[in-house]
Amino acid sequence: MSELPLLSCSDPEFGEKFVMSLQQYGFGALIDHPLDMRRVRRIYQHWGTWFGSDKDACFDVDPKTQDGYVSLYLAEHAKGYEQQDYKEYFQYYPWGRCPDALRTDLAAHYHDAVHFGSRLLMYIQDAMPEPIAATLEQPLHAMIANSQQSMLRVLHYPPLPDNVAAPRAAPHEDINFLTLLPAADGPGLEIKTREGEWICVSNEPNQLLVNIGDMLQEVSGGWLPSTTHQVVLSDNHRRSGRMSLPLFLHPRPEVRLSSRYSARGYLQERLGELGVL
After folding, report:
1. How far is CA 243 from CA 72, 148, 157, 208, 240, in A?
2. pTM, whole model, 2 decimals?
3. Which of 78, 151, 176, 234 to pair with 143, CA 20 to 30 A apart?
4. pLDDT in tens, 31-74
């Protein structure tokens, strides 16, 4: 069975190995990265309490701006699926709403993750074949500079009641450039290999997963294809909740991904397919 190799960010050859892992798996599993995992675990603890509390309606998701709390009943479904995922989440943007007591850690993680994501895009840019790089209107890291669309999602998968049959996250691909996903507080993530095999991703405590989104696939002309992944629920963890913290790195809306799409047009199309718009 295939396994996702761990890549140390302190390795002198990290950039090359990172891009190779993206090409082979659509994912990179990073250790020795700069994100503060103690802060991530603190976010899980504090937001786990918030999800279990009576939530102020002032934080309900705004259908236009897409910031705020999305309940179990409003959660998205994967493209091509009608059944909603069994999850609730809070979508954070620096300009958006957030409970004051929870903002500091979230804002700090957002800043650090976007900064590191920009560095990862530079590694990808350096490895990109010249004919593909020549089609870009600007370097990849410049496409996300000052973007207001990059979004941090605090995800809570509640325990699944015995009378409910629903996926935690059905098979899907992400929309954006890169997703930066620190270790969750429980297992369940699986990725689909290029050969069609599902492999379980180990949940190392200080690991950071990075995966390709469809926008990066589009802007690279398929050189970096996005990878299907899902969150599954074993019988052993049916009664356990799960927290995760993906940062979805987005280009600015006016960026041209290809002759077919701007970033704005691509995002609107995909949100419609997910039942969000």
Report:
1. 14, 24, 6, 14, 10
2. 0.93
3. 78
4. 999 999 999 999 999 999 999 999 899 999 999 999 999 998 88
